[in-house]
Design a protein that fits this description.
Number of strands: 5
Helix content: 55-70%
Shape: rod-shaped
Largest sheet: 5 strands, mixed
Structural class: alpha+beta
Number of domains: 2
Distance between the termini: 51 Å
Strand content: 5-15%
């Protein structure tokens, strides 16, 4: 975009310079005016490469002086008013870059261009009015072209920055999703392994066989967690409600908690992975924070409800469920929790799938 704008200005400056020189030759202008116009054209062309930033001071000063001198040949010598182009474009570049980026400088340039017109054309009112209008419209048009070009390029930079920010947000969201999944995998596995080790420690003296069983279950869980972590790292892990339901059933009953599963898991529901996350997160929370004796999991075509009776005090800081609630909201569903008289209820609802309908 920067190269396109730059070379557009350069092409405009070169083309107009050649046209003006050809016109002056046709008008049989003096060699001095031809040389001055060529010099102004060179300065304006070089100035075109600095449209985005502040040009060198000598280049700006030289361009203003030479182009204004060329412009004086119009009211004094009656040449074509197109010679205003050099002065107008130099002013346009100058008034769109700091510290002169203000419309006031454009007004000053218009006044400066009108001075020789008024002085030399005071005795010809019709020519004075016509030339004054031409000068004002010409200069303001060149100023507007440069200003709109600057505005368009700044807008392009904002869009490019927004695109870059969007890309960074996409990366951050993916990292957030990965960390959330990793937290679910590792958090549940570590807590259940700790529970199995505690059970093994308690039963080691009175029932070594049961203790070894608990140790084997803890080891198996760790092996499964390592495998799931590897699949997650390589993007091969898929989570389903049926798989998480089977896993949670095993974990809850291994902890000595009575579990009742009612209903039938929906098949092919678009929110199947979200339902699976709900069962996983609810299981992790009740194992970590509750002292449940009975758990119920109710399944419907578009809902999953997990209820446990071991939440004696309100559970705070369940960030996993809060994240899931946001994900359900994105697909038009809801995830709510409630706590009443020691019973903690997690209810997830998603839009009914077409297959279910």
């Amino acid at each position: 975009m920067r190269r396109y704008v730059t070379w557009s200005f350069v092409a405009l400056a070169v083309f107009t310079t050649l046209v003006l020189l050809a016109t002056l030759v046709a008008e049989r202008a003096s060699p001095w005016l031809l040389a001055a116009s060529a010099a102004a054209g060179v300065l304006v062309t070089v100035h075109s490469f600095f449209w985005e930033g502040s040009p060198p001071v000598l280049l700006t000063a030289g361009g203003l002086v030479v182009s204004y001198g060329v412009w004086l040949a119009v009211p004094l010598g009656g040449h074509t008013t197109l010679l205003l182009f050099f002065f107008g474009l130099t002013v346009g570049y100058l008034t769109t870059t700091p510290p002169f980026a203000s419309w006031r400088w454009a007004v000053v340039a218009v006044v400066a261009a009108l001075v020789p017109v008024v002085v030399t054309g005071a005795d010809e009112p019709a020519r004075l009015v016509g030339l004054s209008l031409a000068v004002t419209i010409g200069l303001l048009s060149l100023y507007a072209i440069c200003r709109l070009n600057r505005y368009g390029f700044d807008l392009y930079l904002e869009i490019d920055s927004a695109r870059e920010t969007q890309s960074e947000l996409a990366v951050m969201r993916e990292r957030y999703r990965f960390s959330a999944d990793l937290h679910d995998i590792q958090g549940q596995a570590l807590h259940v392994s700790r529970l199995q080790l505690q059970l093994a420690d308690k039963t080691l003296d009175r029932d070594p066989v049961a203790a070894r069983q608990h140790l084997r279950e803890a080891e198996q869980l760790i092996v499964q967690t390592i495998a799931e972590t590897r699949r997650l790292a390589y993007g091969e892990r898929t989570l389903t409600l049926a798989g998480e339901l089977a896993n949670s059933t095993e974990l809850i009953r291994a902890a000595g908690i009575v579990l009742d599963v009612t209903g039938r898991a929906p098949v092919g529901h678009p929110a199947d992975d979200l339902f699976g996350h709900t069962v996983r997160e609810a299981t992790t929370n009740l194992l970590r924070h509750a002292q449940a004796e009975h758990v119920t999991i109710d399944l419907a075509d578009d809902a999953v409800v997990v209820v446990n009776d071991g939440a004696s005090t309100p559970i705070r800081g369940l960030s996993g469920l809060a994240r899931l609630a946001d994900r359900f909201a994105e697909v038009g569903g809801t995830l709510t929790t409630s706590h009443h008289e020691g019973v903690f209820r997690t209810e997830a609802r998603a839009p009914r799938s077409r297959s279910a309908e």
